[in-house]
Design goal:
Number of helices: 5
Number of strands: 10
Number of domains: 1
CATH superfamily: NAD(P)-binding Rossmann-like Domain
Structural class: alpha/beta
Shape: globular
Oligomer: single chain
Helix content: 25-40%
Distance between the termini: 43 Å
Low-confidence stretches: none
Strand content: 15-25%
Strand order of the largest sheet: 3-2-1-4-5-6-10-8
Order of helices and strands: EHEEHEHEHEEEEHE
CATH architecture: 3-Layer(aba) Sandwich
Radius of gyration: 16 Å
Length: 212
Amino acid sequence: MKKILILGAGGQVAQWVIRALAGRDDIALTLLLRNPAKLPTPVPPNGTVLAGDVLDHALLRQTMPGHDLVYANLVGDDMDKQANSIIAAMRASGVERLVFVLSMGIYDEVPGKFGAWNNAMLAEDLKPFRRAADAIEASGLAYTIVRPAWMTNEDEVDYELTTRHAPFKGTVVSRKSVADLIASIIAAPDLHLHANLGVNKPNTDGDKPYFM
């Protein structure tokens, strides 16, 4: 039985991941979120819900032991603090595998007019995301960082990946596609070890996302 801790389980991407893993008898899910009412009902039979915040260090250290993989899909302007809290709890608990969703643009890796537009929209907001990425990469953990393009609610799985130092491609990607990547890593944890991945829908290059 593989035990997976999902942090920020109420988020839209996380809920696609939960749907993908629901009912599997080889995976047990611990679903941690601030507001359990945000979870769809019913909770999957292989899921256990826990109300809490990743900045509650005592709760996180109590919850972490025994899990095989931590998947974090969080929000907030304190992403670096959240990342460091998770890293500390994982080190204390001996849990090594981490999948952490951040954002495109944290390395100024988005080229052209879209990159300029994205920086104008998000530059200050992305700074704690960059600090979080730096902390994760320096942590010694077996991490995968996921950097999605602007996300849509399209019911499709269609994506390509770029590496840490490659120019970012495209402008958008569906949340379901990001969830497919994460569920694939959960199913095969050796996949994309120590990788820092941009995720986009192919052939969506442009000056900005189509819905903006």
